[in-house]
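hey m, so remember when u said the tokens were messed up on ur end? i reran from scratch. heres the input so u can diff it against urs
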Amino acid sequence: MHTPRAILWDADGVLQRIPLDTWDLAVTVVSQIPGALTGAKVDEATIRKLAHDAELDDRVRDVLSVWWTFDLIHAALDIVARLRDQGIASYLASNQDSYRAACMRERTPYGQVLDGAYYSCDLGVAKPSTAFFNHIAADLNIPHNELLFIDDQPANVAGAQAAGLNAERWTHTDGIEQLLALLDAHAIRVA
């Protein structure tokens, strides 16, 4: 097994908490936009219209909050920063629609904490597709087996493994000690 040269981190459930009380509302709305995760245009006006069409006028602010609200997992981001200080690159690898990706770029510190970001809406393919992982490996010019992918969704972990990446399931609710143990199992020790 090769020690990973870079780590790909999922966003929701790993580096940030999703607003659970309104997540299902947002999924209901965005699911009405074919190709939302792979590049179809999504903006606030579209979300408002779809919320109206779904008779969610009284909850439109709640629906929009899913795109705007980022409860960062500071302990996980601290691990990312410490790994970067040790020379291990970290990248975001996340399924997002174009509006949420824009909100994340604007309202999170990912641009300063991570070495880069791969959003499905920009790539035109989404996890768990092997094409998603193949694109990232080719762009980074790093062999698949020298990448470690961390995600909270088992299907995404399986997709990464099928593409030849090292991949582990972890969610912030598992705790930082489990994350450290997972990284240690890949010969990555956090100083």
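this time it looks ok to me. The mean pLDDT is 93. if urs says something different then somethings off w ur setup not the seq
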